[in-house]
Amino acid sequence: MSENMRNTSGKKILAFWGALLFIIMSFSPILLIARADEVGELYHYRGIFERSLDQKAFDNDLLNRSPSSLAQLPSVVTLTFDDGYENIYENAFPILKNHHMHASLFMITGRNEFEGSALMNLSELLNLQSNGWNIDPHTVTHPVLTELNFSEITYEVNESKNWVINNKLGDPVAFSYPYGKSNVQVRNVVSKYYYYARTMKPGLNNLNFSKNLMLTTYALWGTRNIGSLELCKRKVTKAMNEGKWIIITIHGVVNDSTYYKTSTFGWTTTDVLNNFVSFLKKEWTTTDVLNDFVSFLQNKSANVKTFSELINST
Fold it and tell me: In terms of C-beta distances under 8 Å and separation of at least 24 residues, what long-range contacts does 175-179 make, across chains too?
């Protein structure tokens, strides 16, 4: 090999590694967000980074569009509530009913309480179901599925569905992974029993109606220091403009923003809507935040559907 050929080859190798390093450095905040999404304790920080990055991209996207291109395209909003806390029935159900909206409730089927908070009883679940809500499984005991063996995973995934069916709460088509965690083995089991499965990863979903066991979501945490309410509103607007399917995840709903609860995942808040620095440590929201968001959906004429309604509309 001549000296010139060796020099040319060396320059190509350096250029390749230089480009690769540039790509890694450019996307490092996104990698941090993706990793943070897998660790519950870092949800708060993921929100801070995501709000900063997403707002800039969202603003630039709107600036580059013509008024005619902002016309609403077919889109779907699905509201989901995890765990089945009784305060969802007491506080969230009346708000959605007042706005003629339904939601999907992912229920822990084998417990009466979770983290020290009461879960709904069968009578309350039947009332939700009769009012258009989907009752979908969230496992029997809410374990970390990725830490279980095949038989244990199958029990949690299948028995929770059987419980819903046997109690005449419908035939579930969707499942929610506890803590948002799954792996290949978990997804293989889930695929035998469900058409949809929701993670806790942030993102919009395509409306292609194909089987999807890695649906993304945005969480309405009931906090404003990381822009949860504003972020969800922006994402709904973005989904409506682009014909996407957005899933909103909500957990417990407290009636008083000064309410304080102690538990393993303790949280506290001051005035969620009036104080930008208030925050919740637990993934619950307040009725005023939920009411604000639902009113926003109604004003936007958002197409709000449960998982079953979405499948039946195709």
Answer: 175/106, 175/136, 175/137, 175/138, 176/80, 176/82, 176/106, 176/136, 176/137, 176/138, 177/145, 178/138, 178/139, 178/142, 178/143, 178/144, 178/145, 179/40, 179/144
How distant is the alpha carbon of residue 205 from its chain centre?
A: 11
pTM of the model: 0.69
**Is residue 67 situated within a structural domain?**
no
Instruction: Tell me how far apart the terminal alpha carbons of the chain are, to the nearest angstrom.
Output: 63
Condensed to tens digits (0 to 9), the pLDDT of residues 71-119 reads 444 788 888 999 999 988 988 888 888 888 889 999 999 999 998 889 9
Give the count of domains, the chain: 2
Domain extent for 225: 74-312
